[in-house]
Design brief:
- Helix content is about 65%, strand content about 10%.
- The chain contains four helices and two strands.
- A two-stranded antiparallel sheet has the order 1-2.
- A hairpin with a 2-residue loop joins β1 and β2.
- The mean pLDDT is about 85.
Length: about 150
Amino acid sequence: MPKLTGALALLMLAALASVMTYTGFLVVGVLAEYLGTGRILAGLLLGVLLARFPWISKGRLRVVGLLPKPVRRPLIVGLLALCLWHFLSRGDAVSAAFIGVATAFVLTLPWLKRAVFDRLSSSVLKRTGRPAPQGPDDMVIDGEFRERKE
């Protein structure tokens, strides 16, 4: 049974890679059509816009790009939404379905990464019977009391 699960996971990853590759092809085509250029120039424009490069600054390795991190995902979702609208308005359901699956994946990716990381970390780091120690509570006032002898 474990071999079947591994093979199924590999098949799912191959299908996801195929969907994302075909979606990229569709997005570049729609962008080229709207810009009035060829696919090569539209692909190069997207490549320059979304590229990220390693950069060493102050002795630390960083990844820098033309767009800041908070802008990248909304831009990609916006491009996918534009392409989805384009294909739905033309009645091309197959292309719209590919774009829809890719959009759903891009939107759920942060949740998926968090869920997979939590699952892997919980299986690697087994908990003992005792609960995990909690940090200091800011709502508790700590004080010391002494009794007076009379």
